[in-house]
Design goal:
The chain is of the alpha/beta class. It contains 13 helices and ten strands. The chain starts with 5 loop residues before the first strand and ends with a strand.
Length: 299
């Protein structure tokens, strides 16, 4: 089973980060994890989001801001403490993405959970600059949680979707998905997308027959089934799917039909192009999915 001993959840006191914190508390409770909640104070201090009973001064020092923010954070963490989750309240200042990544290393985070702020158009596709940078550079798995206005997913997770392309990262994602599925007693759907037929391939017309597709699909499904242990089948009823087309489109279409509470997927590589694009398929899915998405890398 996957071990999640330390969780880092950065918050900015927005609705999106409150939603992320709810997911962090639930996962910490399932795994008995220690939960570190981090707020990065910009300098000069300003409130990006309206907070009830907040001072309305436009700026100030960290020393002046931190007591009020700590009071707010304690109120947000009341459900976690009531649930018996061990929490750490952290404050930093400076560049938010850089501080989040540094804290993930210093606390030994096995999982990072943060909210996204996009609500449509270019904002949704950009995710928010902080989340974007963290996703590109994080070395631990990252769970991104859409704002309440965008997601109908509920806790505990009862339906999980895990796309698998047989890469090392996607196999690690499947282990993670099955582990979470066990903790939350969830149904896990495992999907492989055959990017077929390749455009411009002259041999495709000769070999792309119904029989050929049937054989390929059967072989692929057998590979998927072999990845699921007998132990996993004792507590869950995993389901395998094989689809044809662009991977991200098929993932999103299946998610639209099945309405999973969580998508778990691997991200390939860490070369400069991958870092810039955050992995093409995962990038499209994170930006468009209406449920939380957990992404992880393995080299």
């Amino acid at each position: 089973m996957v071990e999640i001993r330390h969780i880092l959840c950065p918050i900015d006191f927005s609705d999106a980060s409150h939603q992320a914190l709810e997911h962090a508390v639930a996962i910490a409770k399932w795994y008995g994890s220690r939960l570190a909640v981090l707020h990065v104070i910009r300098s000069p201090f300003t409130f990006e989001q309206p907070i009830r009973d907040s001072p309305r001064s436009k700026s100030g020092t960290r020393e002046a801001a931190e007591p009020f923010l700590r009071e707010q954070l304690n109120a947000w963490l009341a459900p976690a403490k009531a649930a018996g989750v061990t929490t750490d309240e952290l404050f930093d200042d400076g560049n938010a993405a850089r501080r989040i990544l540094e804290r993930a290393t210093s606390v030994g985070a096995d999982l990072m959970i943060l909210g996204t702020h996009g609500r449509g158009g270019i904002e949704r596709f950009m995710l928010g600059s902080v989340t974007e940078k963290v996703l590109r550079k994080a070395t631990c798995p990252v769970l991104t949680v859409p704002p309440p206005s965008l997601t109908a997913a509920k806790l505990p997770y009862k339906r999980l979707l895990c796309p698998v392309d047989f890469s090392v990262s996607s196999l690690a994602a499947l282990r993670f998905a099955l582990s979470i599925g066990k903790e939350s007693d969830a149904h896990v759907t495992v999907l492989h997308v055959l990017d077929w037929p390749p455009e411009g391939e002259l041999l495709v017309e000769r070999f792309d027959t119904a029989e050929f597709r049937r054989v390929v699909e059967e072989q692929t499904r057998a590979r998927l089934e072999a990845l699921i242990s007998d132990e996993a089948r004792t507590w869950s009823n995993p389901e395998t799917h094989v689809a044809y087309g662009k991977p991200y489109r098929q993932i999103l279409e299946l998610a639209q039909r099945e309405q999973p509470d969580l998508i778990v997927m691997g991200v390939r590589g860490r070369n400069p192009i991958d870092l810039a694009l955050f992995g093409s398929t995962a990038s499209h899915v994170v930006r468009r999915a209406s449920c939380p998405v957990l992404t992880l890398r393995r080299s």
